[in-house]
Structure formats: structure tokens, C-alpha cells
Amino acid sequence: MDILRELYSVVMDRKQNPTEGSYTNYLFDKGTDKISKKLGEEAVEVVIAASHNDRKATIEEIADLQYHLLVLMADRGITLDDVEAELRSRRS
Q1: By the 8 A CB rule, do 69 and 11 touch?
Q2: How far apart are CA 88 and CA 91, in angstroms?
Q3: How far apart are CA 20 and CA 2, in angstroms?
Q4: Rounded CA gap, 30 and 75, in Å?
Q5: Alpha-carbon separation of residue 61 from 43, 46, 53, 66, 77 (angstroms)
Q6: Cβ(71)–Cβ(27) under 8 Å?
Q7: Count of CB atoms within 10 A of residue 8's CB?
Q8: Domains of the chain (ranges plus CATH)?
């Protein structure tokens, strides 16, 4: 998914070149604990939307979850290639 790579690139750019007023930079400034908590909140919101059979809300919450996951990955120095390699290793 090229959009994930594009978004990850934007997240990494914010990490390396902070932009005032950026939500991504707010998360980086607050640190790993805050990022992790937001990721957990988004995961719960995905579950709630899915359990209510709300397709639109589920898609929106999955997008939020993926964004926050990318922020956590950038915070921890994990790349999409790292995750892809792990997933590929599990297919053997």
C-alpha cells in the first residue's frame, strides 16, 4: 500500500523536522507512553465500531489506528520494511 509508505514518510519528516502545531509532533513530544495509549484507544474504537456493524466508522477507526501505529513505529525506529520482513518470514 503506497499510501502507508507515503504517510510513514510524512511521519518521519515530522520527527526529523518538527512543525509547530502538528499533531504528529505533539505525539512525539509527549513520548512513547502517550503514543502507545493513543494506539490502544484507537484499537478499542476499531473493535467498538466493528461490533456495531458500522462499516464507515470501522474504516475510519482503522485509518486512525494505522496512523498511530506508524507514529509508534517511527518513535521506536521500526520501518515498514522491518514489519514486511517479519510478515514474510512467517509465511515460510
Answers
A1: no
A2: 5
A3: 27
A4: 11
A5: 8, 5, 13, 9, 24
A6: yes
A7: 19
A8: 2-13+22-89 (1.10.287.1080)
The three three-digit cell numbers of residue 25, written as one number: 509532533
Phi, psi of 78 (to 5 degrees): -105, 130
**Predicted TM-score (pTM) of this structure:** 0.94
List the chain pLDDT tens, one digit each, 92 residues.
699 999 999 999 999 999 999 999 999 999 999 999 999 999 999 999 999 999 999 999 999 999 999 999 999 999 999 999 999 999 97
Residue 12, CB half-sphere, CA atoms under 13 Å: how many?
13
